[in-house]
């Protein structure tokens, strides 16, 4: 019994560790992509990354809150009043994301040019597209085998 519990927690820890490693690797790839696309000076980079990382953390918290809320909903059993409340909460999440983006632009505009901010937004989109395409490619390969 004791061995089973130890084995269970070892496997659980390994899975969690692998997931965190993947997130960290993905984050490192994103940083490299953005760095390459923006071509920041050393001074710009010193000021840019703390602000950008704080924004990413905030964005992740908003996403996690939204995801948690969506997971607990059973649409089929939703009353009209609950549906109204859910829609309001979903709008609040969207407003929080927009407010976070505006706040990022305000802070970054004091450090880098608006052109580089536009490049940042483009770099984020192209990175996301690359990751999705890579995932689709791997998924197709797995289905072939």
UniProtKB/TrEMBL annotation:
Protein name: Sensor of ECF-type sigma factor
Organism: Mesoflavibacter profundi
Keywords: Coiled coil
Residue stretches in coiled coil: 76-103
